[in-house]
Q: What sequence folds into this?
């Protein structure tokens, strides 16, 4: 198993709390000699969900953020382009790229690449991570035209390759942590086998609010420590692998188990208890778990038949 941790929305930062969180987070990874894929917004919008906004903040104007990222890049972190402004072009569903014409997407991605190359000239740039994980076929085509090699999206896609561009899914940190609490890291490693999986993180995952899921950096540090102790590989997004390397051999089972945990969390609350007090499954939960495993196995078989018939 190979874990790839992806940190989104790295940009000009106004919040001192967010600055402190991401600096602590980066330091945890650096102390364990683990890399992160850092998704950088070159010219962040002042109001990302307001398509009419005209105020933007270039990353180079935030000296603290640039210095922090340079330190990471010098120690194995991977630079990724996270859109140009992270500003939606639609009123209802947030997306910076989906449904735009090919040429518009191509121009935006090229502007973003040129911007990052000026600020971080010594860092290779081969990965594109669309804001809100929202993109379409034209996005992938535009990425290929620019010479970027990978598009990393969200949980609702499967890995595939198109015109030399590898498209891979990412999985939310919340699901990953809840899986470890409910099952175990050993179970997760056994489930994935030799596959790779991308885990998506944001600053707000570690900032206590009334509306969002939170995880203490101390607890996450303990998880990373266990990963290091068990010699589980933590790496960056490779450009020379086949899509099958990012499709867990038990993908349907993984999706079913994560869905089970999401449903349970709705009844238990937005967070589970600490890692030292792992949730004990009731008989009913265990039965539901096994039932989902059987459903997942059936889905896996149907998927194999579908692929065979293509």
A:
């Amino acid at each position: 198993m190979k874990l790839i941790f992806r940190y989104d929305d790295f940009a000009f930062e106004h919040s001192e709390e967010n600055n402190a969180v991401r600096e602590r987070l980066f330091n945890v990874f650096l102390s364990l000699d683990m890399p992160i894929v850092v998704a950088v917004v070159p010219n962040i919008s002042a109001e990302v969900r307001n398509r009419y906004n005209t105020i933007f903040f270039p990353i180079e104007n935030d000296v603290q953020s640039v210095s922090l990222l340079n330190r990471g890049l010098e120690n194995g972190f991977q630079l990724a382009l996270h859109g140009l402004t992270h500003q939606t072009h639609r009123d209802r569903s947030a997306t910076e790229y989906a449904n735009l014409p090919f040429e518009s997407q191509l121009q935006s991605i090229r502007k973003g690449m040129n911007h990052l190359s000026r600020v971080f000239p010594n860092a290779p740039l081969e990965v594109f991570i669309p804001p809100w994980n929202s993109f379409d076929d034209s996005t992938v085509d535009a990425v290929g035209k620019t010479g970027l090699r990978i598009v990393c999206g969200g949980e609702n896609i499967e890995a595939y390759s198109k015109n030399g561009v590898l498209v891979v899914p990412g999985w939310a940190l919340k699901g990953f942590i809840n899986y470890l609490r409910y099952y175990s890291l050993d179970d997760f490693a056994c489930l994935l086998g030799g596959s790779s999986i991308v885990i998506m993180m944001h600053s707000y995952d570690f900032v206590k609010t009334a509306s969002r899921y939170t995880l203490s950096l101390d607890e996450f540090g303990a998880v990373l420590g266990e990963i290091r102790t068990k010699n589980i590989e933590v790496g960056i997004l490779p450009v020379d692998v086949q899509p099958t390397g990012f499709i867990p051999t038990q993908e349907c089972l993984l999706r079913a188990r994560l869905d089970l945990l999401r449903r349970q969390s709705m009844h238990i609350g937005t967070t589970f208890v600490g890692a030292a007090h792992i949730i004990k499954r009731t008989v009913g939960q265990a039965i539901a778990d096994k039932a989902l495993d059987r459903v997942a196995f059936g889905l896996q078989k149907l998927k194999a038949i579908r692929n065979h018939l293509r």
